[in-house]
Design goal:
Helices cover 29% and strands 18% of the residues. By secondary structure, it is α+β, with helices and mostly antiparallel strands.
């Protein structure tokens, strides 16, 4: 095992140093405006002409984005909605069908409408409902950055639940030591298709070298996109730190993070410093150490959840006599 721990980091250094050299194939660019162009075309070809024309008229972020499109009949019967009402149908996070189906009743979802959340009203596990409006179970478009869903009607701008259900508060998650075997191949494949290939390489190579055989089974990974990590590609001494400050050996899905919102103890990561969950000034976007979580639950399995984030988590500022712990303390009973 000692030789494996030595060889894998060397393989990783070689892979990253090779990627850092000039190459005819450039690194993937940031999510292009073509994502929205594809959304416009897909909506038009699918019979959602009114929403297609709307996308051409309003300014939207190129990525990440989830679009909920009402049918043309809703535009015809209700007339052109206000901008605030239209923006309610856009969420600044990429929401996969699996994520939407996993959210229980009353889960809030951020939207681009000022100070307005979308609210999950799904009751049946196989049907998606938001604001009591049905949402298609399969997106019209999913290019890895922008997802487009058909919805049965406009979401009510002033929708409120007839009764409130307290959000579940996650118990304090006691993070454990690390294990020797990695089974992250499927997760790495998802990361690569979503523009996070550098973080995928970390999962495939680096984690194998320092997982502890006593076995903490649960993991949370906060994955920056490739364009956020490329500036670190030549700084070999930072690779270990760069990986470990984005990984916590306990599993926290988006619902857990939404429920915590700084009200529970911070998550300890594998170097021992805190990963704090908070919300932005508008109380819309979840953040980890000040970095927006743009693609919640990008990948989830029994023991692993990966969240796409908009930037790189910075190292904490330490006093001169402080240093980061190299590993977790033994779990107390």
């Amino acid at each position: 095992m000692a030789s494996l721990k030595l060889v894998l980091p060397l393989l990783f250094l070689f892979a990253l140093s090779t990627a850092a050299q000039p190459s005819p194939a450039p690194l993937p660019p940031p999510p292009p405006p073509s994502s929205l162009s594809d959304a416009v075309e897909t909506l038009a070809n699918s019979g959602y002409m009114a929403m297609s024309l709307t996308l051409e008229e309003i300014k939207l972020p190129s990525s990440p984005l989830t679009i909920f499109s009402p049918p043309d009949a809703s535009f015809s019967s209700g007339g052109q909605p206000s901008l605030a009402h239209l923006l309610l149908h856009f969420s600044p996070v990429s929401l996969s069908p699996a994520a939407l189906l996993s959210f229980p009743f009353s889960t809030p979802i951020p939207s681009l409408s000022p100070s307005k959340h979308l609210i999950v009203t799904s009751i049946q596990s196989h049907k998606i409902s938001i604001h009591n409006v049905g949402v298609s179970g399969v997106p019209l478009l999913d290019d890895g950055f922008v997802l487009v869903y058909a919805v049965d009607d406009f979401f009510d701008l002033n929708f409120t639940l007839p009764f409130s259900i307290p959000a579940p508060k996650p118990e304090f998650l006691r993070c454990t030591k690390l294990e020797t075997l990695s089974r992250f191949r499927d997760a790495a494949g998802v990361l690569k298709t979503r523009g996070h290939s550098i973080m995928a390489s970390f999962l495939e190579l680096q984690l194998l070298g320092f997982l502890d055989d006593r076995g903490g089974d649960d993991w949370t990974v906060f994955a920056p996109a490739d364009q956020e990590l490329v500036e670190f590609s030549g700084d070999f001494l930072e690779y270990s730190s760069l990986l470990t400050r984005h990984v916590a050996p306990c599993k926290m899905g988006w619902l857990d993070l939404e429920g915590s919102d700084g009200s529970t103890a911070p998550i300890l990561n594998v170097k021992g410093f805190a990963l704090n969950i908070s919300k932005d000034r508008d109380d819309q976007m979840l953040m980890v150490n000040g970095v927006e979580i743009a693609f919640p639950d990008m990948y989830e399995s029994e023991r692993l959840v990966i969240h796409g984030i908009k930037g790189v988590i910075a190292l904490p500022e330490l006093d001169a006599d402080q240093e980061l712990l190299e590993e977790f303390p033994a779990q107390q009973s």
